[in-house]
Amino acid sequence: MADRARRDPVGRTYLVFSTGAVQSEALAVYGLVVTLLSGSMIYVIGFSLATWGCLGWIWTRFKQNLGSIPNI
Q1: Judging by beta carbons within 10 Å of its beta carbon (0-12, 13-18, 19+), is residue 21 exposed, middle or buried?
Q2: Confidence band (pLDDT; 50, 70, 90) for 8?
Q3: pLDDT tens digits for 30-72?
């Protein structure tokens, strides 16, 4: 993966961002299903915090990878 990051930094940045977005969306949908099946609103808070935490982590990784893209 490190070799690919040197050859294609834009593709690597996009890959990190899109993978994180899919992961956080999966967390949100799983939380919704668990909340609807259980009837307890506590899962909304837990999965919402986990989703926002995941998005925050991905955003910091995205900004780091954006810094590694060479200027043209």
Answers
A1: middle
A2: confident
A3: 888 888 898 888 888 888 888 888 888 888 887 887 777 766 5
Residue 72 lies in a domain: no
Longest dimension (CA), the chain: 53
Residue numbers of the domain that contains 53: 2-66
Q: What is the dihedral of CA 22, 27, 33, 39, to 10 degrees?
A: -160
| Residue whose tokens read 């609807």 | 36
Per the structure, the count of domains in the chain is 1
User: Which structure tokens are listed for 48?
Assistant: 């919402």
